[in-house]
Amino acid sequence: MDQLQASSSIIPFDSTETTSEENPFTAPDEKISELIIGIHDAIGAKCDVEQLFNAVSNVIKSSVNISNLERPKNAELVEDTCDFMPPFTTLKEIACEMTCKHFNKSTAHQTIVAILEKLRSYTWDAKAVIALSAFALDYGETWRLSHMKLADKNTVKLHIFKLGEEEESNEDHINLIRTSVEDTLKLIEYIIELEKTRADLKICVRRNVPTLQATPRELYTYWAILALLACANQKFELDWDMRSEVFKMLKFAVTRVNGDLTRIREEIASTRDLTWRLEVINSPSGILQLLKALIFHEDTQVQQLEIFEYTSETQAKPVGANELKRKNLLLFISGLYNIEEHISVLTSIHGELKIKNYQILWIPMGNKYDEAEKKEFNERRSKMAWYVLQDLFEIKGRKLMETEWHYMGKPMVVVVNTRGEVVHMNALYMISTWKMEAFPFRTETEDKLFQNWKWFWKPITTAYKQVTKSKLIDEKNNYILIYGGTDTTIIQKFDSLINGIKKASIGVKDFNLQKACGNEISEFWKSINILFLSRVQRENYEHDSILRDIRTVLSFENLKGWAILSQGKKVLVLGDYNVMIEALQIFKGWKVSDQKQEFVDYYKTTKVESAGSPCHEIELSNVNSRIPISMACSEPSCHLSMVIDVVKYKCCHGQASDVNQA
C-alpha cells in the first residue's frame, strides 16, 4: 500500500502557480473566455455528438444507482451504437489528466487547458462530450467498488489499487458526486442543443437572435470540464469545500445556459413570426390575410377575426369575413390617450366614406393592458361608429408596424385596398388638413393638393376667419402681404410701410397674423407642422421643393419678423423681415401694377447680396422618432446641414409637466 501511495506522488504534473486571472474560482467570465478562445479551431470537425452523448450518458447512468435518473435496460445499452468515436489514446490521455493529477485551485485551469489543447479541432459541444467519454472510462468502475462490500479480500485489494487508499465511503460525499454528475449531464446536453441550434439556423436568421450571438459557448464547455475534474479526481485527498464550490458553479452554469436557451427559442420564434408577417404585407393575398398578419396569431382562422362594428355605445355586431374582404380600409393605429382630436376628424368623414365602400378600423396599441387601460379603451371605443376590436389585447404585429410602417406611438392612418395593398402609408395629416377633399387618399391626390401653395392657403383660410370673411385671396390680381413675428416693433414697421403702399396703390391687401386670436395662431402653426410631417415621410424628401417651402414657412414661427408676398394665390417672394422691410422702404410709393416685377427682382437681388439673412431654425413638437430627421437649411444662400440642437420630452398625462432638454 505504501508503494502504491508512493507511486502516485511521482505522477508528473505542472505545479506552476496559477495567477488570479487564470483561477476559475476568482477570474471573471470575460477573462476565462479570453484565455481559452485561442485554443479553439473555429472550423472544427463536425461529428454526431448526440449519438456519442446518448451512448456515454447511458453508460454513466447504468454504472451507479442514481435514484433520480432512470437506469436503462441492458438491451438499451446494447442498442447504443455510435458512428463517431474519438481516438482511444486521446480518451486515455484526457482520463489521465482527470484522475492522475492533483486537482486544486492552482492547477484546475492548467488541467482544463491541457484537455482543450488535445481537443482543439473539435466543436465546443464535441469537446464536452469527449471529455465526458474520458470521464466514463474510470467513473463507473470506481463507483461500483465504492458501493461493494469490502469483506472480500480481493475486492479490498482492487479497491485500494483503483482508489490509491482505503477509506470509508461517506454517504454525503457520494450523494454530492451523484447529483453533480447529473447536473453535468444536463449542462452538456444543453451545450449540444446550443450548438445544434446555431448550426441549424441560417446566418441571416442568426443575426436576429442576439442571445445566440452573445452566449459564451466556450465558457459552458470550460465549466463542464471543470465539473468532470471535480467528480473524477479521487486518488488524492481533496478539499470537499472546494468541490462544493465547483458544484455551486456548476448549478449556476446549468441555470444560466437553460435561461439562454429559453431566450433563444423565444427570439427564434419571434424572428420566424416576424418573417411570416413581413411576407404577408409585402405580398398580400387579400385584406383578411393582411389583418391577420397585423393583429392576430398566425394560427387564427381568417373566418374568426374578432372585429366588430358599433351601432351605438353599447350595441355591436360582428363583421363577417365576406363583408371585410370587400372593404377598402383606413387603419387608424394609435395609443389610447390624447386621440380625441383625431377621432373627431375621422368621425367627420366617416359617413361619406361608408357610401364609397370605405371603412375605418381602429387598431389600439396598449402598453400595460391593465384595468386602467381597458377602461380607457372602452371609453374611446364608445365614441367610434366604425370597425373596432372586441377587446384590448396585445397586437401581435406591433413589431412589424414599428419596423416596416415606422409606427412610433404617434397616431397614423394607413390606407389599404381590398387586395390588402397599402395605398398610402399615413394619410392622417392629409385627412386632417383636407378632409374628403383628399379622397381617395392616394399619393397622387396628395401631390395635387400640395401644388401651387394650396398647402399654405388651406390652413390659413381654415385657421383665420378674418381671411375667409374678407375674401382676401379671392381676386387673382390682388397683391397680398401676409406678415407676422414675435417682435412688436418690427410688426409696427410692417404696418406703417404697408399702409403707405396701400394709399398709393389699388389692389394691395395685407394681413397681420399677430392680430388674430391666440387660438387661431396656434392652429395655423400646428397645421404647418402637420404638413411638414406628412411630406417628410416620403422617399427622397431631401430633394422635395414643396417640402423646402414648407420648411421655410415653418421656420418663421419663432422669427422676430417675416413676410410673404403673393399675387392672388401665387406666392412671389417670402423671407425674414430684414430684406422685406428694406424692399418695402425703397418701393413705398409703389405702383403695384407697373412695378411688380421690379419689386420682385429688387427683393431677390438684395436678399442674395445681404449678409444679414439668418439661417433657418425649426422646432418640432411631439415628434416620435428613434433617429431625428436630417435636413439641409432651406435658406437659399446656405443649404448646409442643420444641427439638431434641442430635443424635448414632454409628458402630457399629468396636470403639470416638466420639459427635459438634451
Describe it.
By secondary structure, the protein is α+β, with helices and mostly antiparallel strands. The protein has three domains: 33-270, no CATH class; 288-439, Glutaredoxin (3-Layer(aba) Sandwich); 446-613. It is 52% helix and 9% strand. It is built from 27 helices and 13 strands. A four-stranded mixed β-sheet has the order 4-3-6-7, covered by helices on one side. A four-stranded mixed β-sheet has the order 9-8-10-11. α9 packs parallel to α13 (240-282).
Low-confidence stretches: 1-17, 66-80, 153-161, 647-662
Would you tell me the structural class of the helices and strands? alpha+beta
Helix coverage percent? 40-55%
Shape: elongated
Tally the helices: what do you get? 27
The profile of the biggest β sheet is: 4 strands, mixed
Instruction: Give the overall average pLDDT.
Output: 77
- Rg, rounded, reads 39 Å
Strand content: 5-15%
Give the N-to-C terminal Cα separation.
78 Å
Number of strands: 13
Neighbour order of strands in the largest sheet: 4-3-6-7
The overall number of domains is 3
